[in-house]
Design goal:
164 residues; mainly beta; Lipocalin; ten-stranded antiparallel barrel; disordered N terminus
């Protein structure tokens, strides 16, 4: 089998990659920060390279009413490429955003729980999202830590699937 043929079957034939199908499509987001709710963000997940990688595009809602610290630090748009290390069933996410931030995250998606994390000294981050039973809503929390031991909630987010 050629590399191209193997690649075209990646997401269909690999049961670990198939887990990511839960994310594929378009989502609207609702972010909650310091008791305020901001709606209108958009997230899309699409397969590329015949199912070998998943691309995640994010557009942030107008946060002009958000706390100043959030406005100064939140990206307006972001893109990530998600791939699989099939030796340990862990995903890696290459991330970049409109602030010229570039990061590498670890990711898992199993049993209806989506996790993203990075254990960088001085600024560790983690996200945990739980899918609704019908798979059309994800409730999540993003946290940050300066020391990797004590965690603070950065924001809460709800993803709602748009159409089919």
């Amino acid at each position: 089998m050629s590399d191209e043929e193997a690649n075209s079957q990646s997401a269909e034939s690999n049961p670990v990659l198939r887990r990511l199908n839960r994310l594929v499509g378009e989502w609207e987001t609702e972010v909650r920060i310091d008791g305020q709710t901001f709606r209108g963000g958009r997230e899309t997940f699409n397969w590329i390279e015949d199912g070998a990688f998943l691309v995640h595009h994010s557009e942030t809602v107008d946060l002009s009413d958000a706390p100043t610290e959030w406005i100064e630090n939140a990206p307006r748009s972001a893109v990530s490429v998600i791939g699989l290390d099939d030796s340990n069933e862990e995903f890696t996410m290459l991330y970049s955003d409109s602030r010229d931030v570039f990061r590498v995250y670890h990711m898992s998606l199993s049993d209806g729980v989506w996790k993203i994390w990075r254990d960088t000294p001085g600024f560790a981050q983690r996200f945990t999202g739980t899918f609704s039973e019908d798979g059309d809503t994800i409730e999540g929390t993003s946290e940050r830590s300066d020391d990797g031991a004590e965690w603070d909630v950065d924001f809460d987010v709800t993803y709602r699937r748009v159409g089919e």
